[in-house]
Structure to design on (189 residues):
């Protein structure tokens, strides 16, 4: 009976941990996408063009967060295991940015399709936005994914939830662990 309770507790902890990661990723990506949409709206208002889509940004952030977790589960970037951490970080940021590019193209294609109800309209929806705007969106996503994956990979290298604890919990609760890591790295042990 203790084994079953242990497995149940382990599953609950794993579920809590994965849900927390998913929610943090979704919020981070949603903030980036919302900022981009608000900026786009502010520019278009100057030309008296009404355009504001925050709903798809939330959907896109949820999909990207799930893709990031799936990529982590499948070992995305593990080929850089023995190399400098920056290579793994840049690779993950680039790979997920390419997926964000495809989601942006899909967004504009769906918008074009909904306005015209045919495939030509979907293609026109992508062309109206222009490649420059879509590529700029992708570049901004890439730049914002770099610190995300940097924190993620540094946390993994430190072990456990140390980075999360440093960022979101009281400092004195983890200060001894940080000092231990710091002294270990200095001494080379």
């Amino acid at each position: 009976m203790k084994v079953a309770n242990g497995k149940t507790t382990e599953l609950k902890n794993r579920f809590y941990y994965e849900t927390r990661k998913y929610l943090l990723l979704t919020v981070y990506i949603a903030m980036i996408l919302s900022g981009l949409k608000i900026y786009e709206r502010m520019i278009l208002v100057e030309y008296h063009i009404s355009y504001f889509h925050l709903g798809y940004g939330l959907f896109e952030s949820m999909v990207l967060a799930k893709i990031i977790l799936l990529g982590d589960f499948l070992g995305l970037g593990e080929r850089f295991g023995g190399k400098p951490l920056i290579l793994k970080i840049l690779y993950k940021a680039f790979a997920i940015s390419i997926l964000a590019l495809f989601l942006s193209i899909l967004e504009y294609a769906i918008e074009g399709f909904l306005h015209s109800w045919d495939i030509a309209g979907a293609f026109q929806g992508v062309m109206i936005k222009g490649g420059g705007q879509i590529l700029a969106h992708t570049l901004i996503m890439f730049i914002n994914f770099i610190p995300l994956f940097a924190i993620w990979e540094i946390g993994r290298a430190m072990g456990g939830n140390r980075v999360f604890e440093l960022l979101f919990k009281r400092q004195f609760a983890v200060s001894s662990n940080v000092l231990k890591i710091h002294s270990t790295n200095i001494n080379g042990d």
Observations:
- The two ends are 41 Å apart (CA to CA).
- The longest helix spans residues 2-46.
- Residues 181-189 have pLDDT under 50 and may be disordered.
